[in-house]
Amino acid sequence: MRQLRLIILLLVLCLAVVACGDDDDDNDDGAVDDDDAVDDDDDDTAGDDDTVGDDDTVGDDDDDTPWPVNELIEEGKRWLALGDGDVANTYFRLALEQVPRHPEANYGIVLGHDVHMLDIISILWDYIDSLSYGGPVKGSADPDNILDNFIDEALGGLFYTDAREQAEYIEICLANGYHFQQDDAIPVIMHFVLQAELAGQFDDAELYGSYVIPQLLWGVLGQFDAISLDVDITILYAITELDFDDLLPALRETVDMLLAAMEDPSHAGFLTLPEENIPQLQEAALMLASAANNFGLMFEAIEAERGDQSGDVVGYHDGNQNEMFDSWERYRFPGLDLLDEEGMALSAGLRNMAIALRNSLWDDTEFDIDPETRQPFNLSYLNPLLKLAGLPAFIPHWDMLDVDLGAVYDDPGTDGLKQTLIQILHIAEIILDLIGEEV
To answer: What pLDDT is stored for residue 55 in this prediction?
Structure first.
């Protein structure tokens, strides 16, 4: 499925769509993008060092003297360059036993998990490909419910534990302003093809990027894990056999097939939700909102970065050499190089989409930024995805296209999510027909 592969590739590029910038605001607000957890003015948290008589030794995490070379960390970096995040993390953990506060030992574990997440995406990609020729899911206990079993195995065995540990180390690195230098490029390989290479200095914004992929996967797959995926698998096989080179007709047929699957009386439980799984669904929705939030923070970090950009993993082209981002300057990403005007406009659209998604998912939760105002997600925010697919950005910003995601997840019932998706698919039918007339 060409379209789904494109979306997966975009998830991978979140590893690259990050900026080089750290937080030196010293405002002690305790947020994950700050360098303090307590309001103590001298930033003296665990892992910090900025007071005389504290632990100001050569190689501390906040002085200008480089940390001594650590052979275990260097070995971990070598394995990152070989594309094996799990082995790399073995060495980074050994280094932490020797030097618990070493910035690169802590940060290295984050990057090791990044590479592991790429492996998970590759498995998902291969699984999607396998559907086109009827490939089974290895180890499924119930051959009549392949998808449920696959999601359970993927999340339980490959994902949740690593995602939780990665979040722990991201928070440590953000709280202490840790950086990481990788001279030998980390390969981004998807479906046996090298998509990009990541080398240079990693700092705060790369950490936000490292949040995005696991939170996005948790947000999406966690919802699939909560609901029933007992579906007529032959319908999904039929979708994989469509000719996505002729994209618009293929998308129209896909919508029709998905509606057929959802309205199939012989699989009436498809996409329904057991009451005991409602908290899991809500947690996954918050993970999706957090992924969208951190995606926005990545762009903020690009624009907040100061100094020379030449050695950074990603950054911006400092056209006037003033060592700060100006509104007319452009981002640069590994594998994409310098964005042109269209690329900058597209990145702005994706950023707006992420913020709108976050705000709507946060409605009716403790994170609601404006409890007095509903913030529905308008389907027109998906126009940047249509552009990425080579389609006209034709979704109008009509009130009828508002989806109140906060209300959906606040009280989903047993089939509230399913009914919302059916409604969206019917709207998609109308929009695709309009696009067809436009084309």
So the answer is: 41
